[in-house]
Amino acid sequence: MTNFSRDELNSIIHIQQNLMKILFCTIKKMIDSLDITSSYHSNTLLDLLNKSKNSLKACNENMNLINDIISCYNNSSENLLTIYETNIIKINNNTIIIEDYIYDSINFFDLSIQSKISNINNTSISLNNPENAKSDIPDFIKTRKNTLIISETTGNIILPYSINDLKNKNKSYEQIIDEFYTLPIDSFKPAFIARFRETFKLAHYKEKKSVIFSINLATELMFNYNLHPAIITACKNLDELDIYLDCLENNETEKFKCFNIIFEVPPILSQKKL
Predict the structure, then answer these.
(1) How far apart are CA 233 and CA 196, in angstroms?
(2) By 3-state DSSP, what share of the chain in percent is helix, strand and coil, each rounded to 5?
(3) Quick one: CA torsion of 127, 129, 130, 133, rounded to 10 degrees?
(4) 121 lies in a domain?
(5) Which helix (H) or strand (E) holds 112?
(6) I want to staple 181 with a disulfide (CB 3.0 to 4.6 A). Which of 69, 159, 173, 228 is the partner?
(7) pLDDT tens digits, residue range 95-126?
(8) Of 112, 127, 151, which one is at a domain's C-terminal end?
(9) 17 and 98 assigned to the same domain
């Protein structure tokens, strides 16, 4: 290999390493943006998620192709030039796949930012009243500790909490639950996108799994229609999620004991399901 080709390879290694960092950051931002883009066209989201997986595969393949060239160079292989030229073509093609995904994601982020600004502008801000801060713990708060409440009647989801979690001198128990443990049920729609997002967050952010592992697991669960995405959010770790999935598969969800699960459905909806 000529000195020029060796320098070119060093440059390609540097470019691919930076591109890999940008790709990982882009995927994380894309998944975070799913919190505020539930109205975004489902087919577009699926296409973007599929492109993210293809980009990760392309990135991984590029690293392997570069390692092959380095190995041939270090071993003074007779086929070095042929392998170099062949692999560079593949690397360039893979790079196009990655860059196309990053470009598409930029448009996705722009839409997400506009949606977020709109939500902020439409949100009223209320101040806490410290005079009502703390009193005896209400019975309904005690009875609903360590319980996931999925309520179609109120349009909210309340995540599991412990009494110790609610200790704050400047806020009432109700205020803390409303602020830190209550989410609008619409934030889990469409459900398949929410399942993907919450699984990725659980695996990558809570369990510190790799981006590739997290995306593969999220893709595996996103079309599990019997799995409510809020249950994924309520799980503290992947072990809890695995336990629930086993119970779900065996139609024995009543045996799941990591936390209680309550579904609140309006009477009319309940009658329709009977």
Answers:
(1) 11
(2) 70, 5, 25
(3) -120
(4) no
(5) helix 80-121
(6) 159
(7) 999 999 888 887 676 544 444 434 434 444 34
(8) 112
(9) yes
